[in-house]
Design goal:
The chain is of the alpha+beta class and 184 residues long. It contains six helices and seven strands; from the N terminus they run βαααββαβαβαββ. Strands 1-2-3-4-5-7-6 form a seven-stranded mixed β-sheet, with helices on both faces.
């Protein structure tokens, strides 16, 4: 395998099975939850969730051998309450919030800048849309490397670990609009 040759591009219908495999492997291995329909429904219907809407995106990282080794997605749905805190649902309403989702890279391809490249492409997509006022995401800090990665790109807007009872333990972020490529 040529480890330095990666292409980041929009996913096609032909990529969906491989992208789904990356996502499901991640939720089983890294999250330890397995597939949970209320959290991962989009993973099963990637075409409906991301390919059918002009305002949604699914991108893939493909290695030099043509294998999908990373994914990233964006949709126009803000964080729902419940399970997320109501103030976040109000601050990041659907339609004007681009939510980053499913930024996953297979373990053997990590630490090569792929996640950052995936995010850059998603942010460029959001900026080109013209209708998004904010970019939101949340992460589980129990996943190795997730929290430091997102802290390097975004600002924390709510850390549930600081809530009474610890909430779900999720950290919520906003990517500053000034950081978007192509936005002045």
């Amino acid at each position: 395998m040529r480890t330095t040759d990666y292409t980041i591009r929009p996913a096609t219908s032909a990529d969906l099975d491989a992208a789904r495999a990356v996502m499901l492997d991640t939720v089983y291995r890294d999250f330890g939850t397995g597939y949970v329909p209320r959290w991962h429904r989009d993973v099963i219907d990637l075409e409906g969730a991301y390919l059918r809407s002009e305002r949604h995106a699914l991108i893939v990282a493909v290695d030099g051998d043509g294998e999908v080794v990373g994914t990233g997605a964006l949709d126009s749905r803000g964080p729902a309450h419940p399970p997320n805190p109501v103030h976040l649902a109000e601050r990041y309403p659907s339609g004007v919030t681009a939510q980053l989702r499913r930024v996953y890279v297979r373990p053997e391809h990590r630490r090569r800048g792929l996640a950052r490249r995936l995010v850059d492409e998603l942010l460029a997509f959001a900026a080109a849309d013209g209708g998004y006022r904010a970019v939101y995401l949340h992460t589980d800090p129990a996943v190795t490397g997730a929290e430091p990665f997102w802290r390097s790109l975004a600002k924390v807007v709510h850390d549930e670990r600081e809530d009474a009872g610890g909430g779900q333990g999720i950290v919520h972020f906003e990517v500053p609009m000034a950081g978007w490529r192509g936005v002045r």
